[in-house]
Design a protein that fits this description.
The chain is an all-alpha fold. The protein is built from seven helices and two strands. Strands 1-2 form a two-stranded antiparallel ribbon. Helix 2 packs across helix 3 and helix 5 crosses helix 7.
């Protein structure tokens, strides 16, 4: 299979692969490019991966092909959701984990006692259909998964309680939660504790920037509150 990777590398480096109006890449090689190569050529064009040297190109193509085939194998199982190509498709698993930014747990949660509530509930609930889940967002090159996780949980809880789904600010947590490290990682527990103490502003008042900034918290604008988690 070595010639498969060489064909794509040469295509990228000397420009003999090109795109038609339908964005389907074609090759002028003596043999056809593989499915993985075609997908990768489209990927590097869309994502602007035009700074790779020859060695990096070979390596990223191999990583992409592995991820592409893992996605394909998963999708063929018909498990109710599919995997696709995104900006992380030529990342290794370890590289992807570094982007996420979850910190090790250090905070000890306060123990409490509460009588259990017993009720007959449905076997499953899709909260998306009940207006308790906002659209998927892109955290960019910022290790802020902890802020997105905490914010989505708060949004859902408040929507279930109040009957109205708000879009809250992840950036406020990135900038202002001093127990976490912004784009360098954090913890949902820290974020929940911060919101208990300070409240949370809306996304429109404190928009996401995918980078560390000085805290611009406005207590008067922080209208969403929680009391526990």
């Amino acid at each position: 299979m070595k010639h498969v990777f060489i064909s794509a590398a040469v295509a990228a480096l000397i420009g003999v692969a090109y795109y038609t109006e339908s964005s389907a890449p074609k090759s002028v090689f003596l043999y056809e490019m593989s499915e993985e190569e075609i997908a990768y050529m489209r990927f590097i064009s869309q994502e602007g991966r035009n700074t790779y040297d020859r060695n990096e190109f070979f390596y990223r193509l191999q990583v992409f092909a592995e991820n592409y085939n893992k996605n394909k194998a998963h999708n063929e199982l018909g498990l109710g959701y599919t995997l696709g190509i995104n900006q992380f498709s030529d990342f290794t698993h370890e590289e992807y984990k570094q982007v996420l930014g979850l910190m090790p747990r250090k905070l000890q949660r306060q123990a409490f006692s509460q009588e259990p509530v017993v009720f007959e509930g449905p076997s499953s609930v899709d909260w998306r259909t009940k207006g308790a889940v906002n659209d998927v967002q892109n955290q960019g090159q910022c290790g802020s998964c902890w802020a997105f996780s905490a914010t989505a949980a708060i949004e859902g809880a408040l929507a279930i309680k109040n009957g109205e789904l708000a879009k809250l600010s992840e950036q406020q947590l990135v900038d202002c939660d001093s127990n976490s490290n912004g784009c360098n990682g954090g913890l949902m527990d820290y974020a929940f504790s911060y919101v208990i103490d300070n409240g949370q502003e809306s996304e429109s008042d404190y928009p996401y920037a995918a980078k560390n900034q000085d805290c611009a918290y406005d207590s008067l604008a922080a209208t969403s509150e929680i009391s526990a988690y």
